[in-house]
Amino acid sequence: MNASIGTRSETRDVENVLGPFGIHKKNESGDIVIRMLVETKLKAMMSFFEHSRYDTWLSLDRKTVHQNDHWLVDTRLRSKVLDAKRNWKIATHGDHTPIVLKLRVGWETINLSRKIAAEAPTELDWNTLKGNEDTILEFQCEVDRKLEILKTFNAQLTSADLSEAI
User: Fold this and answer.
1) Which of 49, 98, 105, 125 has its Cβ near the most Cβ atoms within 10 Å?
2) Are strands 65-66 and 57-58 parallel, antiparallel or unpaired?
């Protein structure tokens, strides 16, 4: 798609999705991406962090640069992002510069995962499940409940919300 989305100063009413930093160029593909960002409540994270360079693409004549690669993050996860930038130190064989995203991952996540795992049975008697419709249904409901807990966890709710769900 090679979308150049510009920065907050090139587009009106995008304070929630674009930051003030980046290359001040925007193209038609960028307009499409910006509309998608607004509709889906995503943020273009590289535009929220100040760096010396933002170009992720260099033309064959080595004169034209664009910022065509972006990290798009749900607005609820914005506080977990510590940095987003291009990384010219990573060697690639293409004409795009790799981009990196630095995230905060708390210990709480590990502890909550252990709590979920601690509830899991260590052994499962398959003979008990075989042929007993009530047991099969109960087992399926429990599996569904655990999956919902994990979905909730991935939706980035607080540890209290997750503990309540467990």
Assistant:
1) 49
2) antiparallel
